[in-house]
Amino acid sequence: MTAMSIPCHALMENGSVSVEKVVIDDIGFTEEFSLLYNNLQEPEKNNTIDTRIRILYHHGAQSDTICMGEYFGIMVNGQQKEDSPKLLKLIKDRIYKK
Predict the structure, then answer these.
(1) Segments of 1-98 assigned E as strands
(2) pLDDT band at 18; cut points 50, 70, 90
(3) pTM, whole model, 2 decimals?
(4) Which of 6, 68, 74, 81 is paired with 43 by a 20 to 30 Å CA distance?
(5) Residue 50: which of 30, 35, 68 has the closest Cα?
(6) CA pair distance 45, 11, nearest whole angstrom
(7) Angle between helices 27-38 and 85-95 (to 10 degrees)
(8) Residue 52 in 3-state DSSP?
(9) What is the pLDDT of residue 40?
(10) Which residues are bridge partners to 49 per DSSP?
């Protein structure tokens, strides 16, 4: 998670930003994450996202880059998705857990 606003494309392209990395391999968490992730919908309208969280989601042979705002906004591989408060809460609860 970053303490400043960085556009999603900058997080995807640039490795020069210092970020905290958390690897999550808990099966219960990944199952719940996958369920919520697979239910993401196309948005009714596009909004600007104040990206604070970047997730590299490895599933099978595929990897997706997910950028999320602190309070709203989701992009998957550069494509905006409808907000998912449940997915955001799941992620924030896990990354803020120390």
Answers:
(1) 51-59, 62-69, 74-76, 79-81
(2) low
(3) 0.78
(4) 6
(5) 68
(6) 23
(7) 150
(8) strand
(9) 96
(10) none
